[in-house]
Design goal:
Blueprint lengths: L4 H11 L4 H14 L2 H14 L10 H5 L6
């Protein structure tokens, strides 16, 4: 069974969460490559994922500034 890009993006983000710069870079790539409904799901996931990771809080600016057409 093929894995969705959303699930792949979540996996990558989890693996790079040790490095804030890399995490933000991968988040930007995910936002550009996912479908609009997947971006919404990723935003929800991200808000829950970084609750206990204060160093990753700055990544929220990328989802708040997402200018993609919906």
């Amino acid at each position: 069974m093929a894995r969705s890009m959303l699930e792949y993006s979540k996996t990558v983000l989890k693996k790079v969460s040790f490095d804030v710069k890399l995490f933000c870079k991968e988040l930007k790539k995910a936002l550009m490559n996912l479908l609009p409904h997947e971006v919404d799901e990723l935003k929800t996931w991200l808000e829950h994922y970084i609750v206990d990771k204060p160093e990753l809080q700055q990544s929220l600016m990328y989802i708040k500034n997402d200018k993609r057409p919906q």
